[in-house]
Amino acid sequence: MAPPLRAGASARAIGHRDVLDVALPMILANVTVPLVGIADAAAVGRLDDPASLAGVAVGATVFSLLFTALNFLRMGTTGLAAQAHGARDEAASLAILRQGLVVALGLSALLVLLATPLRIVAFALISPEPAALAEASDYFDTRLLGAPATLALFVLTGWFIGRGDGRSPLAIVLLVNGLNVVLDFAFVLGFGLAARGVALATVIAEYSGIALGLWLALRARRAAGAPARAAAPPWSQFLAVNLPLLLRTLALMLCFAFLTAMGARFGSAVLAANALLLNFLYLASYALDGFANAAESLIGRAVGARDGSMLRRALGLSAQWTLGVSLALSALFWLVGPLLVDLMTTQAPLRALAREYLPWLVAVPLVGGWAFLFDGVFVGATLTRQMRDTMLFAALAVYLPAWWVLQPLGNHGLWMAFLLFFAARGAAQAWVLWRLARRGGLLPALPIATQQSQ
After folding, report:
1. How far apart are CA 198 and CA 201, in angstroms?
2. How far does the chain reach from its first CA to its final CA, in angstroms?
3. Which residues contact 58 (CB under 8 A, 6 or more apart)?
4. For residues 426 and 64, is the Cβ–Cβ distance under 8 A?
5. Contacts 24+ apart (CB under 8 A), 140-143
6. CA distance linking residue 52 with residue 188, whole number of Å
């Protein structure tokens, strides 16, 4: 467990180790996530019926979209918990955790109530074959039982990150994913449960993760000492932080879906090449997200401590690591990108197409890395309304108009518009931060998690 920062500590109180204490465990946790999908496919793929594999793919896609949209719970909890931790307000920190878990349970209940229409709409859009549809339905019904655990894990992960503790989320992820893999093969190959077995493995693994997460949270509370009882932060503040994050996340999902949809207009080969290159982008996001998580924690704790020098130090350290990682990723894609393409496909035409568009991907970490950084800064400072507005600006005022103008360039124009979208996000967020800093409002404007203790 990372040691807490002292409220009012000097800028020397934080350093590169504080960044790495959060970033490295979160990067490792992110990297293990695709392994679960591989295990799901490997277990079901050993069955004779291809409909089972198709059903798992359909069901997993639906839940991936649902839970990605609801991941705002993780970000909102991180910012609020970080500010409370920086203010040394353990009572507010625990109240924020409780509020997050209550919201997670409420959203889970809403998913259960809306399960039937959600399933009808989702499966109608994907249109699987009847055999795959039956397997997908089994997966959907079983996986829905784990919704409370999934959403509660978002909250617990955010709470730990806010406290500068990257090791606890890593331990939870390792338990969940490791148990998931073992249970996949036990339920699918041992008991013949097919798609239902894959979903059941995930559900059991995630509830096991909740048990570990709650135990770690209880241990963190004991280590911090028994907090004095205090009124919980108002629900209006909790919702004011989280609702803009929901809209921001939905807009980001639509932007990625737009890239895929427009790429499909140029034919299956271009669609496949874009999908292949997007895997590289997801790989880059694992690293950049890890350092964004560190920024969330350090910025939030500096805001909670009401320490301007710590805030500047946290921003400087986060920017240094983001620049370094972005340069390394771009160099990696430039030097070994063609080799990675060859490893991912043996089709010569697809290899040629992917290599043709690879330079755009080389530029994405350098241009888009700042959007990742400022996302972390905005989350830590609970500037979620501004985070939403800059996302909508980049999507509606830059991405879509740029694509309309650049359509004659084909898929190159699509990637150029996508790159401009990242650039616009980072530039707009930098402008917002500059305006706040110029007015001296960055610290005074953001006492969301600490108002109750002042």
Report:
1. 5
2. 27
3. 123, 126, 128, 132, 133, 135, 136, 139
4. no
5. 140/59, 140/62, 140/63, 140/115, 140/199, 141/115, 142/196, 142/199, 142/200, 142/203, 143/59, 143/63, 143/199, 143/202, 143/203
6. 10
CB 433 within 8 A of CB 299: no
Angle, CA of 150, 225 and 3, to the nearest 5°: 70
How many other CB atoms are found less than 10 A from the CB of residue 287?
24
Give yes or no for a contact between 100 and 73, defined as CB atoms under 8 angstroms apart.
Answer: yes
Identity of the amino acid at 51: A
In order along its 454 residues, the chain shows pLDDT tens digits of 444 444 444 444 778 999 999 999 999 888 877 767 767 766 776 666 677 777 777 888 888 888 888 999 999 999 999 998 888 888 888 989 999 999 999 999 999 999 899 888 888 877 778 888 888 888 889 999 999 999 999 999 999 999 999 999 999 999 998 998 899 888 878 887 878 888 899 999 999 999 999 999 999 888 876 555 555 667 777 888 889 999 999 999 999 889 888 888 888 788 888 888 888 888 889 899 999 999 999 999 998 888 888 888 999 999 999 999 999 999 999 999 898 888 877 788 888 888 999 999 999 999 999 999 999 999 999 999 999 999 999 999 999 999 999 999 999 999 999 999 999 999 999 999 988 888 766 654 444 444 433 3
159 CB contacts (<8 Å, ≥6 apart)?
A: 77, 78, 81, 93, 96, 97, 100, 217
CA 225 to chain centroid: 31
Instruction: Give CA–CA dist 443/388, Å, rounded.
Output: 20
Predicted TM-score (pTM) of the model is 0.88
- Amino acid at residue number 85: H
Query: 332, exposed or middle or buried, with CB in 10 Å at 0-12, 13-18, 19+?
Result: middle
Q: Which residues, 6+ apart, have CB-to-CB distance to 320 below 8 Å?
A: none
**Distances in Å between the alpha carbon of 268 and those of 123, 274, 409?**
22, 10, 18
Give the span between the Cα atoms of 106 and 152, in whole angstroms: 10
- Report the C-alpha gap between 420 and 422 in whole angstroms: 5
Alpha-helical runs (H) found in 127-234: 130-143, 147-162, 167-185, 194-224
